[in-house]
Amino acid sequence: MNLAEQLKAKKDLKVIEFANEFLETIKPQLINAAEEGYSAYWYTINSDIPNEKR
Predict the structure, then answer these.
(1) Which residues, 6+ apart, have CB-to-CB distance to 1 below 8 Å?
(2) 46: Cα within 13 Å, side-chain hemisphere
(3) Predicted pLDDT at 54
(4) Phi and psi (nearest 5°) for 2?
(5) Where are the alpha helices (DSSP H) in 1-54?
(6) How far is the C-alpha of 31 from the C-alpha of 39, rounded, in Å?
(7) Cβ contacts of residue 17 below 8 Å, gap of 6+?
(8) Rounded Cα gap, residues 51 and 20, in angstroms
(9) What is the pLDDT at residue 18?
(10) What's the pLDDT tens digit per position in 15-52?
(11) CA-CA-CA-CA torsion for 14, 20, 24, 26, nearest 10 degrees?
(12) pLDDT at residue 4 above 70?
């Protein structure tokens, strides 16, 4: 492997590491948002709000 390939491999590894850290950081927020969205969805489905206003 030449120097350019080694540098690219290191850069790719850094990108993957950053992406993993980023996802671990935002995972709780994503889960919370999904739960809130799910709850809001079922609230509107089970409420008396007319279909055209949902």
Answers:
(1) 9
(2) 6
(3) 53
(4) -85, 175
(5) 3-46
(6) 12
(7) none
(8) 41
(9) 93
(10) 999 999 998 998 988 888 888 887 877 777 777 766 66
(11) 80
(12) yes
